[in-house]
Amino acid sequence: MAHIKRGDNVVVTKGREKGKQGKVKRVLLKKNRVEIEKVMMIKKHVKASQKDPQGGIKDIEGTIAMSNVSLWCESCSRAVRSKVNVDDAGNKQRVCVKCDTTFPNPGM
Ligand SMILES: [Zn+2]
After folding, report:
1. What pLDDT is attached to residue 43?
2. What's the pTM?
3. Does residue 107 sit within a domain?
4. Is residue 88 part of a domain?
5. For residue 48, which of 4, 6, 55, 74 is within the disulfide window of CB 3.0 to 4.6 Å?
6. How far separated are the first and last CA of the chain, in Å rounded?
7. Distance CA 91, CA 64 (A)
8. Distance 75 CA to ligand 1 centre (A)
């Protein structure tokens, strides 16, 4: 089970975007990479199309290795690791190893 999910608040822990926080837009499971809002922005040349008649150079989010990001815990105000708890109903919940806050499972 991937420790990062779409909609999670994460922080970059390695690389040139270290320290940046954002929301996960996309998880590329097979590549073990994630796309985070406003992080790792890259320029992309877009051809004019029906959807985008202008085309041109756009700023888009590049992907980042999942191992270089950590979940952000609001209550700890820091990057944390999560563990998986199973509640009485058998649902898996990710909780902060430091403060036991449950991370929501957004967007799934
Ligand atoms: Zn915490």
Report:
1. 95
2. 0.83
3. no
4. no
5. 55
6. 13
7. 29
8. 5
